[in-house]
Amino acid sequence: MIMNVAPAIIVLGQNSVTVARKIISVLPGATLYGLEGRTSGVDVSFTNFGETLRELFVQGTPLIGICAAGILIRTLAPVLSDKRQEPPVLAVAEDGSAVVPLLGGLGGVNDLARRIAEALDVKPAITTTGDLRLGTTLLSPPPGYHLANPDDAKKFISDLLAGAQVKLEGIAPWLSDRKLPIDPKGDLTIKITERLVTPTANCLVYHPATIAIAISSIIYADETIALVQQLLADAALERASVAGIFAPIIAAADPAIHAVASALGVPARFFTPNQLESLLSQGYSPAQAAAIAATGKSPVTPSSSQIAIAIAPQPIDLNITGQPRGRLAIIGTGPGGSQWMSKEVKEILKSATDLVGYKTYLDLVGSLAAGKQRHESDNREEEARAKMALDLAASGRYVAVVSSGDPGIYAMATAVFEVCDRYAKPEWESIDIHVAPGISAMQAAAAAIGAPLGHDFCAISLSDILKPWSAIAQRITAAAQADFVIAFYNPVSKERTWQLAEARNILLRHRTPDTPVVLARNLGRPGQTVKAIALDQLAPAAADMRTIILVGSTKTRTIKRRDGNIWVYTPRRYT
């Protein structure tokens, strides 16, 4: 099946969501699109069905519409052009009783239909004659094989259906196990080879992904790309048969390695020292050891200290050969609701294999956590959580460390970098670490009541677990003297109740008792409350760890509205 892009599942009503979830169970990277106002618990809401569907189709996204086949056909008709470029399009009945492949025969639509039908426990409505009679779609080989001459396939299949016999040259279990009329003396030929050959009308050529290119070090990416291409040409090997770029894990952070992989359109995979130790002890160079580890065969290229090429007897399964470069994303979900979660964060959550975080924060992710490995921990176990995330990523996983608000503001981004700095384990050097920002609690609180952060402001955590109260008191005093608006994080916990009262007392030495104070609790979550009080009314009983407090400057003002609500803002001009 040729499908390199995760599918989009389109639903028009809430009744279809249950069927969509069953489909996602076998297509875990799929994105669920739902019609706004009629669906909930979806990944993306849309208002215009036609525009959304056509935009996804043009982008090459496989489409699974849980709706009538007719509406999909009529909607996509204006953008149909080249069937060789069409992504798979399927219609699924609302009750899951039918799976109908519509478009994308060359993109593996029938195989996709079979996977979905198996998940729904029904039989797919496949009507392709060649697929039914031959037991396979010659135009869309399975992963690990590339058809070199698809333009010749139509007549080739027609001849087979008309009674022609075919001889099979090379090893291809996916063909020999099917209903093909195989005869060693057949007039037609199917050739499976990683070698450079010239296809003909009577010969379909499939290139298996059996070639491993191993690189131990790179100085210049462009020169290495040219050298790899020359080595392939000298060995009469087909570029389409390259399965991947392989290297020792120590090279995983080298951007040039990934540049070579990108130039060849293949993934990069890496081996740990333990996986290469035995081969290195036998005198092989790191590149040769990586090539052998990937294929089980000796390199076919001349001895080189930097590059080696080897050929496996079967397509290389990249899921079990080496590991990808580990990725660690530290993400901010915003204060609560999914509407405050950035598109970048949602994409990371969809792609990640593992989610690490405090249970409450993982629960905020909702349906985006489906199919992921969850690693929950107590909110106070930040260092242990960071170590776990780094170790998971070092093993080749794509890990998302989930924080609420913004991960860089009193949250897990700092904890991860502290652990990296303090322990500096060599295996963490290979990890691609990325921080994805979120809307902070102080931003959300300010937006809910007006613009109290409209001029200079600062943030201070009232927790004295990681820093002494003397430092906190000093900062509150300095901020009050400088006339900053102050956002107080972590104001009160079960064990800490006096700090907020003491902070209020410090502020009252520099602010008037009627200074506006905003209390925002459970932002974006059930039970959200946002209110304004006077500074002299601020007491520990008014807050908890789910509360963010914004204390106005001497310039902060309130506007009372006729409906009884209050706006709070800080002017931009000091006059």
Description:
- The protein has 575 residues and is an alpha/beta fold.
- It folds into five domains: 8-127, 3-Layer(aba) Sandwich (Rossmann fold); 145-208, no CATH class; 211-311, CobE/GbiG C-terminal domain (Nucleotidyltransferase, domain 5, 2-Layer Sandwich); 327-439, Cobalt-precorrin-4 Transmethylase, domain 1, CATH 3.40.1010; 442-569, Tetrapyrrole methylase, C-terminal domain (Methyltransferase, Cobalt-precorrin-4 Transmethylase, Domain 2).
- It has 18 helices and 27 strands.
- A six-stranded mixed β-sheet has the order 3-2-1-4-5-6, sandwiched between helices. A five-stranded parallel β-sheet has the order 17-16-18-15-19, with helices on both faces. The chain has a five-stranded mixed β-sheet with strand order 21-22-25-23-24, with helices on both faces.
- α3 links the parallel β4 and β5.
Low-confidence stretches: none
Q: What is the level 1 CATH name of the largest domain?
A: Alpha Beta
Residues in helix, %: 25-40%
Please tell me the total number of domains.
Answer: 5
Radius of gyration over all CA atoms, rounded: 30 Å
Which strand order spans the largest sheet, edge to edge or round the barrel? 3-2-1-4-5-6
**How would you name the oligomeric state of the polypeptide chains in this document?**
single chain
What is the residue-mean pLDDT, rounded to a whole number? Answer: 91
